[in-house]
Amino acid sequence: MKNTLFIGATELAEILGISRAQSYKIIQKLNEQLEKDGYMTLAGKVSRVYFLERFYGISA
Asked: What's the total number of domains in the chain?
């Protein structure tokens, strides 16, 4: 079963057309923002909803 709640570096790289190294940096930055707001995070993954909100302005 594919986890749709979180997005990983490989999928993020494909969506944005960037390298995996760049996508890891983006995930790290997004997770830092989430942690600052008191949320728990997973290394190497970010909430799909949060990613969509921050990059495309799409809210759930």
From this structure: 1
Q: What is the pLDDT of residue 32?
A: 97
Are 10 and 21 in contact by the 8 Å Cβ rule? The answer is no
Residue 43, judged by CB atoms within 10 A of its CB (0-12, 13-18, 19+), counts as exposed
d(CA 14, CA 32): 22
Looking at the whole model, is its pTM more than 0.70? yes
Neighbours of 14 (CB within 10 A): 11
Whole-number pLDDT of residue 2: 62
Q: 28 lies in a domain?
A: yes
Judge whether 36 lies within some domain.
yes
The domain containing residue 13 runs over which residues?
6-56
